[in-house]
Write a structure and sequence with these properties.
Layout lengths: L5 H14 L3 H24 L3 H6 L4 H13 L1
Length: 73
């Protein structure tokens, strides 16, 4: 990779910035933990897979179509 190229300069900017961080590393750790909680833990406990429980295997499209038509009435 050329050292004068845009991608190299952009990578070097971010690499150098993250390497010299002190407080930022702690903040990024907190952000990553919060994202993990939001996307994994909440998904498991609060958003069950309705298609798997209600539609059965292979009938997902039919179930969704029926639900959309019934709600439109």
């Amino acid at each position: 990779m050329k050292k004068s190229g845009f991608l190299y300069k952009a990578f070097d900017l971010y690499y150098d910035g993250f390497r010299n961080m002190t407080l930022g590393k702690t903040l990024w750790t907190v952000i990553i933990i919060k994202l993990f909680i939001i996307f994994v833990v909440l998904k498991i406990f609060f958003f069950p897979n309705f298609l798997k429980t209600n539609a059965g295997k292979g009938n997902e499209a039919e179930y969704v179509g029926k639900q959309l038509v019934d709600r439109a009435r």
